[in-house]
Structure formats: structure tokens, C-alpha cells
Design a protein that fits this description.
alpha/beta; TIM Barrel; 7-stranded mixed beta sheet; globular; iron; metal ion binding; 4Fe-4S
């Protein structure tokens, strides 16, 4: 897996202060996407063990307490990203169980494969659905168009 950007301190992509990872690769390629540079799977930088260690260190750094991890992109549920994203999410669950995990995907909950559902089962919040330029609404919280849904899961 590659990642395109990493924010060790982020207050935009979810509630509270967070750690945000933008993975590379998106099959949806939505018209009007603000993050087109993340569409190619090979864009950005390799996500390796050192980067996973950094995410965990930043997430658990007591100098700037973080509420959780946000996964965006690209698409963290892209089939090519699933193994690495799932491993990261499971590691966060094991090493920082008090942190919440949010993810954004262009797939709808109903479209998810079994492998994607396995990842979603580890999340606290999933924002699903393609960005639809014609349904863009700047007043929405955590999503760009009114067709996108926020799913909150009990953990």
C-alpha cells in the first residue's frame, strides 16, 4: 500500500484532535473530487513498518492527546489497500483501544465485499458513498455531498 499524505495532528477529518492517513488508490474517481492526486495506487510513498510505528506513536503521544485515527484517501477500502489498512486498524485496537477509528469510502455499505466488511467491523464510524458534485453541500459535517452517509457502529 502507498499513502499520499499523513497528518500527525489534524482537527478537520473527524471530531477532536486526530491522526489522519490519506492512502493512495481510488476506483471511484468522482467528478469534482478535491483529492484527485490520490487516485493512483502507486502515488505517494510506501506504507511500511516504520510508518505504521509512527502512526501509533503519534496517536498515543500524551503531549497532544488524540481522539482517534482517520483513514481517507484515495479509498482505504480499495481492495489493494485492505490488508495493510486492516493490519493498521487491528494494531490501533490492540495498542490504543481508547481511540476511535473513522474511515471514508466511495463504496456504499451495501456494496462491500466480505473482505471490506471485515475491515468495517473494526471501525467506529464509516462515511460511505461516492462524492456527487451535483449534491455538494458545504454545510454538511464530515462529508462533501448529501448522498454520503455516516454510519456509527457500537463497539
Amino acid at each position: 500500500m502507498n499513502y499520499h499524505a499523513y497528518y500527525p495532528v489534524d482537527v478537520v477529518n473527524g471530531p477532536g484532535t486526530r491522526v489522519t492517513l490519506f492512502v493512495s488508490g481510488c476506483e471511484h474517481q468522482c467528478r469534482g473530487c478535491y483529492n484527485q492526486s490520490t487516485w493512483r495506487l502507486d502515488s505517494g510513498h510506501p506504507f511500511d513498518a516504520a510508518m505504521a510505528d509512527r502512526v501509533l506513536a503519534d496517536l498515543t503521544d500524551s503531549r497532544i492527546p488524540k481522539r482517534g485515527l482517520s483513514l481517507s484517501g484515495g479509498d482505504p477500502l480499495h481492495p489493494a489497500n485492505l490488508p495493510d489498512v486492516l493490519a493498521l486498524v487491528r494494531r490501533v485496537r490492540a495498542e490504543a483501544p481508547d481511540k476511535d477509528i473513522w474511515a471514508w469510502t466511495g463504496y456504499t455499505l451495501e456494496q462491500l465485499s466480505e473482505a471490506q466488511q471485515a475491515l468495517v467491523a473494526e471501525l467506529d464510524v464509516l462515511i460511505d458513498g461516492k462524492f456527487e458534485e451535483s449534491l455538494k453541500d458545504a454545510n454538511l459535517v464530515w462529508r462533501g455531498s448529501s448522498n454520503q452517509r455516516i454510519h456509527r457502529f457500537e463497539r
